[in-house]
């Protein structure tokens, strides 16, 4: 089962992704091999971040569409594949070093990594009146009640209970992730509206998956299924699951910028109701090989304190609604989803291209030895 604490920890890992790999679909939009039509109007796009998980997909797609792209980050992971096609500015929002942005103008700014409200405030002080459209990547963790399905963009948001949100830092956030993450994201959204008015787009993803995902939260499943044998699956297989390929999210952000679309959108996928069984069997359809799935009860999972990523029970958990968030508004605004099989295929291709020591490092899920013990205990419970 995954908690809000896990969501933040995984998000932090995702933003620590390595530089853009130069391999097929992980390095560019899936459609980049085909002729991507140029946008009707080229834009000057500023991406705050840009070298983490989804940022490189935004950049690649924006370049393919004919836009002029500037990134702004700490410069710790410069991406050489872009050459002089992308202007890469260096600064540090943690310390308030935004000098590289001063005196510049862009049509669009996409804010990828922000969790702390003062980051948005400081960016607004430099960029207010200098960008025509501000797009902010938030999270479904902003909702006050995640226990029931059907959460929509108008559902109540988490309330901040601290003394001064603008005084919160990475250190104070990490010390109280469960209590602060959602509310600080919600306040960051509010600060974006305060700084940039009605020219703001708020996008709230759930689980972002696919190539470049350094968290292994979804990767655990196709990787484990590809290894074959008896596989422990939580619940009865009917619990809903929502994931979105990072490329689908990144490319849609650029299309939102092109259309000037504002508002709030839940970026959760796919565009059909997917169950846990549908997900694991969908992975198996790609990996092939002998594999069997053994469902174990939620009670057994909780008793044994098993941490299985992506899965949440459809009722009885503070996060039960995370598998059934309404995405109708986002779909109406043009969000599309590639097939699960494509995500799994490309994800495994990317993962297997990593260094052996990285592949040996299990960042989510259950180690095989522990899984074997659990399955043995499950079968012996009678």
Task: Explain this structure.
The protein is α/β, with parallel strands linked by helices and 382 residues long. 36% of the residues lie in helices and 16% in strands. Helix 4 packs parallel to helix 6 and helix 9 crosses helix 12. The longest helix has 20 residues.
The low-confidence runs, each spanning 5 or more residues with pLDDT under 50, are 7-33
In percent, how helical is the residue content?
Answer: 25-40%
User: Using only CA atoms, what is the Rg?
Assistant: 21 Å
Number of helices: 14
Number of strands: 13
Largest sheet: 7 strands, parallel
Strand order of the largest sheet: 3-2-1-4-5-6-11
| Structural class by helix and strand composition | alpha/beta
